[in-house]
Target: E2 ubiquitin-conjugating enzyme
Amino acid sequence: MAIPKRITKEIGRLVSEPVPGIEAKSHEENIRYFDVTITGPVQSPFEGGAFKLELFLPDEYPMAPPKVRFLTKIYHPNIDKLGRICLDILKDKWSPALQIRTVLLSIQALLSAPNPDDPLANDVAQNWKEDEQGAIAKGTLAPWSASREWTQLYASN
Model:
């Protein structure tokens, strides 16, 4: 089966115009499957981590969103213990105008700005909500000590 031009073009752009903090490589044997590494954003509890993800483009892509999940364990309200991600553009807000690059940038942004009001991991979201004032007062996300700890344990190089 031939690979659509769009996928070939998107892969070429990912290689020729890499996104800072994101590395995505397609498999030679299945060009629809990608190994992704996202570096934890600066001034987030994930700073210093290198998070492995897998991304798969279904046959319906770009009419259907890519399937993406974290392989590295992460303590985040919008990512569950199976690595599934609660992100609107991966579900009901998907548009064929979006690209692999856009999806990866959105996931990187989610690491910088977790949304405990739309959680996938309710226990993590509750912990964040209970200590939000401490996070704001310190000017960092330091109260997310579990996130920092998990980043050191599971996402350090």
Q: What stands out?
A: Confidence is low (pLDDT under 50) at residues 132-143. The chain has five helices and four strands. The longest helix spans residues 100-112. The domain at 5-154 is CATH 3.10.110.10 (Ubiquitin Conjugating Enzyme).
